[in-house]
Write a structure and sequence with these properties.
The structure is a homodimer of 432-residue chains.
Chain A (H helix, E strand, L loop, with lengths): L2 E14 L18 E10 L2 E7 H7 E8 L4 E4 L1 E3 L11 H8 L4 H6 L4 H10 L2 H17 L2 E7 L6 H17 L3 E9 L10 H21 L2 H4 L5 E4 L8 H13 L5 E4 L7 H7 L4 E4 L5 H9 L3 E4 L1 H6 L8 H7 L2 E4 L13 H11 L4 H7 L2 H6 L17 E4 L6 H4 L6 E6 L2 E5 L6
Parallel strand pairs in A: 1-4, 1-5, 6-7, 7-8, 8-9, 10-11, 11-12, 12-13
Antiparallel strand pairs in A: 1-2, 2-3, 5-14, 14-15, 15-16
Helix pairs in contact in A: 5-6, 6-7, 7-9, 11-13, 14-15
Chain lengths: 432, 432
């Protein structure tokens, strides 16, 4: 007796399932990938119904479509858990200024940085915002990303923050990539509040957060059970620990799950504060020391490391992701794609950097952009691994060994991207 | 009166010509790109006949095919002037060993490194060598590379070195990318000569070099006026300065133009020796000091910098390419694509690394992978810039500002690749 299904991918040289017990993987478990040689994935109605040996699944299922994946790798679609992909304009001028020697903080102090993207985003019509962001999502999709967290934070005023949320929803509806919205109204102090930041914090708490929640409740995300996160940038020049705590505590009061940008340039105490408030993820951690690392490892938070920013700023001090894993923390990796500190759409390159400069093993890096990244955005139960019942988001990759995803760098090994059981990207360069 | 031509690309937001006086660009001239706004390129019989303002060329030429490049950048096809792209197998195991702490030199001393690729390459049938290398050239082409220097050096015995040359010729014939062959028989000391390296040097001089020259004279390269270079790896654990000088001097005696791997890990004096012998390029220079840099700047040699190796080894000390340019040297950049120290096909990523870690301006990085790279492989008169009379090798890029080629990293901005006037790659991912 065979069961009739929509799609069977079979004969893959290697399948990386990233399966395992529920909850984030920790410590040495980050090396476990659930490899299957000569494997198959059975898909029906957009969901995975079985993963296992090819000959077994070919006996058990009768598929309307088959894909022979001989010599290929099949792995979960990548999940990018921390992005600022929705913005207008670019910051290529600042890029040249930095080469000439200006620091990120100097550029920020001179009215550049986030505030410059804020002006461009405030001035952009909704359709321009969607169009410019869409081309970035296209690049990300080609590179294997199937789920993307996307933050506001270039509006920094009620109407523009809501317009960014609308753009995130419009992109989620129009693009094969699934988006997960995060309100980051506390991303920077808007210039009109330059000398009274507390008043902006008050505005975020009293108006922007409640309005965002109201927007969310009527949105496609609430309908689909996709969370709205609240986030804050706790850093010198942005929001201090007291201000950051006020924003996150207010968001928690409203029932929103939390994220926080902490310990990027300065260890202000934001990490400890965010963990205390039960943040789902704590992001950056570039300057976290052993005490902070131990606290993350004892928490349920996912540690989201962002090697692209160090790379982009020409830095040599990377977050101690090795130390985090060794201490037992669950680490995720992200592009942080944004116009200033990380104009990078590629999770394969992020893996490559992490393996070289943070000493992650290729297996750890792969778990960090799949399963752990899914848990970092509250979707660990539906994406990030190849298991029966999960969404059929998966990649066919031009190699029979997952380690090549991180060993090679700068190219694109992804051949086919499947989202909810449908091919949404297939490489097909023309060579006449 | 209009002239009839094959192809007119017009209405480009920006054209980067990289034109200028003959000879390599030096010092501040590396910042000059010859930009044309709203530009056009006229192509006939595989060659450029004119580059200039769009309205002017549209009046002067009647083209059988037209490509409207509104909003796009047109620049020369990239030239990768130092590669080991022809090999069999991979070294992904060593990649994991290095993450666990082994150094490149330790792996080399333990029989890994180049010698491991030598075994794989010696054992590979000619068609396997071509097939595996071809897929790498496909990745390079998608990323905008249209001309590639390719070295032997995984044979390390007469027959296998000649088989590598044959593979280079076969790839040149079969693939849209043009290849330029380099004999690097003195890449490593083959294990059978472990305790008597001088005998291998003698073999290279007495047999391999003359046989390679004989092969070359009957090859498609000689017929096309494409040079055969001779190269040597002058480094502790490879060939010392005396041995390296013997190889290069013998090659020069045979009339071959010279290259040399020098100052990569150790400044042995190879740089000075190679300049004295009139090398066309001196490659690596990671540990060259001010005296060496000044000598390069006073020479006619192109300085080929290889930031991928530093990146791949997780290093933080990059070659002083900024110092080289400031001293007046002509710098080129390369992927060095090879299975051990740089499994990287992407010149856009090389530019991105060089801008961030070597402080090259985007304009300098772009000249370094076009015009200067062409001069580094003896083809400065036919590729590397958009000028009347040159080969019509050019790229359409998804941006109106060349700086985006280096500002963004990890993605692929190249939309269309044109080689000798014909479209050889056009991005066309399927989004059903």
């Amino acid at each position: 007796m065979t069961t009739s299904i929509d799609l069977l991918l079979h004969s893959a040289a290697q399948i990386v399932t990233c399966d395992g017990p529920p909850g984030p993987k920790r410590g040495v478990a980050m090396r476990e990938l659930g490899l299957i040689a000569n494997g198959a994935v059975a898909v029906d109605q957009g969901r995975i119904v079985a993963v296992g040996p090819s000959d077994e699944l070919r006996r058990s299922y009768q598929a309307r479509h088959e894909i022979a994946a001989a010599g290929k790798l099949i792995c979960p679609g990548f999940v990018d858990p921390h992005t600022h992909v929705v913005y207008a304009g670019d910051r290529v001028n600042e890029f040249e200024q930095r080469i000439a020697g200006a620091t990120y903080q100097e550029i920020m102090a001179a009215g550049g940085g986030i505030v410059s993207s804020m002006h461009a985003t405030r001035n952009a019509a909704a359709d321009q915002l969607v169009r410019e962001s869409r081309s970035r999502l296209d690049q990300m999709l080609m590179l294997g990303t199937t789920t993307v967290e996307a933050k506001t934070g270039y509006g920094l005023e009620l109407a523009a923050e809501l317009r960014q949320l609308e753009a995130i929803a419009a992109l989620d509806a129009a693009h094969p990539i699934d988006l997960v919205p995060t309100l980051l109204a506390a991303h920077a102090i808007p210039p009109e509040f330059a000398n009274h930041a507390d008043d902006y914090v008050e505005l975020v708490i009293a108006e922007i957060l409640p309005a965002a929640l109201e927007w969310y409740r009527a949105s496609r995300f609430a309908a689909a059970g996709v969370p709205l996160f609240a986030d804050v940038f706790c850093e010198r020049g942005a929001f201090d620990v007291v201000q950051s705590r006020r924003v996150l505590a207010a968001a928690r009061e409203l029932g929103l799950p939390l994220k926080a940008h902490v310990d990027e340039f300065t260890a202000l105490g934001g990490l400890e504060m965010a963990l205390e408030l039960g943040a789902v993820s704590v992001d950056h951690l570039d300057v976290s020391g052993p005490a902070g690392i131990a606290q993350v490892a004892q928490s349920d938070a996912i540690a989201v490391s962002i090697p692209t920013v160090t790379f982009n700023l020409g830095g040599t001090h990377y977050a101690d992701a090795r130390g985090l894993i060794d201490a037992g923390a669950a680490v995720a990796l992200t592009t942080d794609i944004n116009p200033g500190s990380a104009p990078c759409p590629s999770l394969p390159l992020v893996m490559a950097i992490a393996c070289r400069y943070q000493r992650l093993l290729p297996a750890e890096a792969l778990n960090a952009v799949t399963r752990n990244a899914a848990y970092a955005i509250g979707l660990g139960d539906r994406v990030g691994s190849l298991e029966a019942g999960k969404q059929a988001d998966l990649l066919l990759v031009d190699t029979g060994d997952y380690r090549h995803l991180a060993y090679e760098f700068g190219g694109n090994p992804v051949e086919t991207v499947i989202k909810r059981g449908a091919i949404v990207y297939a490489r097909s360069g023309r060579h006449p």
